Amino acid sequence: MESLSANESMPLISYLTNFLTSQHVPTPIVKSTRMHQNDSSLCPNPALYHQLVCRILYLTNTCPNITFAIQQLTQFMANPILNHYKAINGVLRYIKGIPGQGLFYSTTPSIHIKGYTDSDWVTCPDTKRSISGFFMYLGSSLVSWKSKKQNTVSRSSSEAEYRALAIASCEVQWLTYLLG
């Protein structure tokens, strides 16, 4: 990603300073919110939306609790609408309320791999594809996580869960090879 000149970054800086007085929210995205492309009003500033999502995307490396929300918002980089713009504001307000939170890496020598996986059947109203996610722990430390739209449409919630389990199994196998 190219760096911004001083003139290009000023709208972003002034936009972010407005969040200093805003109230924080308890979750990065409301669960009932279904992100999709529709014919509602366009985002007032698509360039600002793009800058915000690109910058927040880097936070998913140390803040896995925003991974799903950012995965949802990155799908609409080309043509964001007003609802996507409001959602990115919600993520910013959530981040404002969690300063200092991040990943904890324990010093205990546990080499036990533990994983959790889930999927949400037919989550995307545009493509009817499911979203899978997993978290992998090494002992009590989170070492790997992912939230991704599945490549194909699942015919049932069981099929979506099996696809999520297959993705998580590949991750466990990779972690096992890495540790071996």
How would you explain this protein's 3D organization?
The chain has 180 residues and is α+β, with helices and mostly antiparallel strands. The chain has 2 domains: 6-96, no CATH class; 113-179, no CATH class. Helices cover 39% and strands 14% of the residues. It contains 5 helices and 3 strands, in the order ααααβββα. A 3-stranded antiparallel sheet has the order 1-2-3. Helix 2 (46-57) runs antiparallel to helix 3. The chain is flat, with a radius of gyration of 18 Å. The protein starts with 5 loop residues before the first helix and ends with a helix.
Short characterization:
With 180 residues, the protein is α+β, with helices and mostly antiparallel strands.
The radius of gyration computed from the alpha-carbon positions, rounded to a whole number of angstroms, is: 18 Å
Could you say which structural class the secondary elements and strand pairing correspond to? alpha+beta
Task: Count structural domains.
Answer: 2
Q: State the shape.
A: flat
Q: What low-confidence regions span 5 or more consecutive residues with pLDDT below 50?
A: 1-7
Question: Strands of the biggest beta sheet: in what spatial order?
Answer: 1-2-3
Total DSSP E strands: 3
Q: What is the end-to-end distance?
A: 35 Å
Q: Report the biggest beta sheet as strand number plus sense, adding barrel if it closes.
A: 3 strands, antiparallel
| Helical run tally | 5
Question: Percent range for helical residues?
Answer: 25-40%
Beta-strand content: 5-15%
Nearest-integer average pLDDT? 81
Helix and strand sequence: HHHHEEEH
